[in-house]
Design goal:
Pfam family, one: DUF4907
Keywords: Membrane, Transmembrane, Transmembrane helix
Order of helices and strands: HEEEHH
Strand content: 15-25%
Number of strands: 3
Largest sheet: 3 strands, antiparallel
Distance between the termini: 84 Å
C-alpha cells in the first residue's frame, strides 16, 4: 500500500502544477493580448500629443459612391453603402459620400464612436435618408 499511496501523491502534485501552470499561461496570454491591442490601436503618441492622420477617400462602387477612411496610413473604414439605412443603398454622388465620410472622420478625431444616425444623414442632406 505504501507504493500506491506514494504514486497517488505524486500524481496529485503533478495535477496541481499543471493546473496552476495552465492558469498562469492563460493570465499571461490575456495580459499580453491586452497590451498588444492597447498599443496597436492607441491614437496617442508617446509624448501625449494626438498623432492621428485621418484621410477620407471617395470611391466608385456598383452604381454609385462610397468612402474609405484611413488612419495613420492604414485602412480603418471601407464604406461601400450608406450607413444607418437598411438594405444596400449607395451614395448617388461623390459629394454625398465625402460629406458623410468627413463627418465620420471628424468624430474619430474627437475620439467619438464613428457611427452615423439617420438624423445625421438628414442633416447632411443625404436624400436616401428622407422617408
Amino acid at each position: 500500500m505504501g507504493e500506491k499511496e506514494s504514486f497517488f501523491r505524486s500524481t496529485k502534485k503533478y495535477r496541481i502544477f499543471t493546473f496552476s501552470g495552465a492558469l498562469a499561461l492563460v493570465v499571461l496570454f490575456i495580459i499580453s493580448m491586452h497590451t498588444l491591442i492597447r498599443h496597436s490601436y492607441s491614437p496617442v503618441s508617446s509624448n501625449g500629443q494626438d498623432s492621428l492622420s485621418v484621410e477620407v477617400i471617395a470611391m466608385r462602387v456598383d452604381s454609385g459612391w462610397g468612402y474609405q477612411i484611413w488612419i495613420n496610413h492604414r485602412p480603418f473604414i471601407y464604406q461601400n453603402q450608406i450607413p444607418a439605412i437598411p438594405g444596400h443603398h449607395v451614395f448617388h454622388s461623390r459629394t454625398d459620400a465625402m460629406r458623410v465620410g468627413t463627418r465620420v472622420a471628424s468624430k474619430i478625431l474627437q475620439h467619438e464612436s464613428p457611427t452615423i444616425t439617420i438624423a445625421e444623414l438628414q442633416q447632411l442632406g443625404i436624400a436616401e435618408a428622407n422617408p
